[in-house]
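Subject: Sanity check before I submit

Could someone independently write out the structure tokens for this chain? I want to compare against mine line by line before I put it in a report. The sequence has 107 residues.
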Amino acid sequence: MAWIGSLLISAISLLVGAYFIKGVKLRGFVDALLVAVVIAVLNGILSYFLAPLNWITLGLFQFVIDAIVIFIVSRFMSDRFRVDSLFTALILAVIVAVSSSIIHWLL
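---
Independent answer below. Compare away.
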């Protein structure tokens, strides 16, 4: 059941990022929740295969993985979620990570 809370926090973090970043468009909370589920599944798959690279870079490569996943998801779900560029996706990945950490810390 903890994963449901994590998905809700990720959806809220995506909404926060979409609010603050000009190149990110997200329609609403339901769409943010759907995007969070797709991102979580793709991150789980990619992180498994790219774990050695993550270990070598001490976890910093995870932001690049997150940005690529966010960018790919935005291309497939362009009617619900849109990111203008890969750099914007990288900024969104950092904001989602920071805001998720803050929300987890507050709860």
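---
OP: Matches mine. For the report I'm noting this point. Residues 2-106 form one domain.
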